[in-house]
Automatic annotation (TrEMBL):
Organism, scientific name: Thecamonas trahens ATCC 50062
GO molecular function: iron ion binding; phenylalanine 4-monooxygenase activity
Gene3D superfamilies reported in the protein's UniProt record: Aromatic amino acid hydroxylase
Domain of life: Eukaryota
Name the UniProt record assigns to this protein: phenylalanine 4-monooxygenase
Record carries keyword Transmembrane: no
Segments forming domain Biopterin-dependent aromatic amino acid hydroxylase family profile: 82-429
Amino acid sequence: MDTPSAAVDIPARDAAAGSTIVATLSHSPGKLADVVDVFREHSVNMSRIRSRPSAVNAEEYDIEIDVNGVDEETFSSLITALPAKRVTHLATNDVPWFPRCEADLDESVKDVWGYGAELDADHPGFTDEAYRARREKFAETAYSTRHKDQMPRFEYNEEETATWRTIYTKLKELHPTHACKEFIAAFNLLEARGVYSPDTIPQLAEVSDFLQSSTGFRLRIAPGLISSRSFLNALAFRTFFCTSYIRHSSTPMYTPEPDVCHELLGHVPLFANLEFAQFSQAIGLASLGATDDDIKKLATLYWFTVEFGVTREEGGIRAYGAGLLSSFGELQYCTSDEPEHRPLDLEAAATQEYPITSFQPVYFVADSFANMATALHSWAMRLDRPFAVTFDPYTRRVIVLESKQEIMRLIKNVNSELSILTRVLEHVL
Ligand SMILES: [Fe+2]
């Protein structure tokens, strides 16, 4: 039987602010009702409640409850009285909600800024009824696909495939002279495995499987442009929100929004590179529960790296950013002498102003993806967030390192991995 507050951490908190309480219960009837009773007895309203299987024990499940405006004394009494095996809570003020497991991304997929089924008046497909009907269909599929569902297959028509072929062929011509070597290697591998070809728009399910087997990254269908917070949050789970529709056929070399060409021909190949995958996930982990100001910084850093990053190779400047690799014009411009090339400094890149409707006047030059990932971890420690998070690759969940229990569990895992490595080394040396 669960005993009240078997393990309770009560970090300092601001009584006026909101908190998220996580109560771990055993799988037996009536447990949730007992928890609700304690809230009722303390006259504390739950502003949000969610449940999920525990990451620690298959016989347990976690109830995550948001509360607001609870004074310190009531809060302390409440969590002490909870009939749970473990109780933890975020000791932070106004920590924005963030996903803890992949199923939580079902919430994020609704957080669309634009270009779902609705198109702006200046969109090339705005007056094309057939195109708008297609877009609505793609958006509906994205909204209705849940984490538990299989990735749907998309049937692309001849006009759409022709647009893909035009873009694919033109961009690929520029790879040897304008793309970084890691991108070219991954692109060639996608072709060799039969996932990519100019004649067929790849199925996102197959692309996702390829990434999963390479670095653990996965694709999740997006209805349109996802908000910065939700988009970055998904990266923490090695999940990339990816659109499935294609730009209007009248402008094959231009799109005002992300489309399947931008995603597959710009973003996807490098998610198969381990160091780049680690860098991308590090941005995502830093974004979980981040302040709005820090989300802006992280989104700007993402812009100047994952979208518009360049690196220097023997032959000169080479692109690794998806916004460049999916743009015939800017890919040539970014490697020329015309724009300014500055060495990548994460703080400078995170605060640099940039235009969104014209070529970039400034690009930041990275030396290596491995160094970027290391530098990002250090830089992210300076962000205004009073807790740390880590990703559990076995359960694909995010662990908030706030309670002693979670930190001890992580140390045990690290010890276990170290002892395996030690034994391997003893055999090898
Ligand atoms: Fe993008």
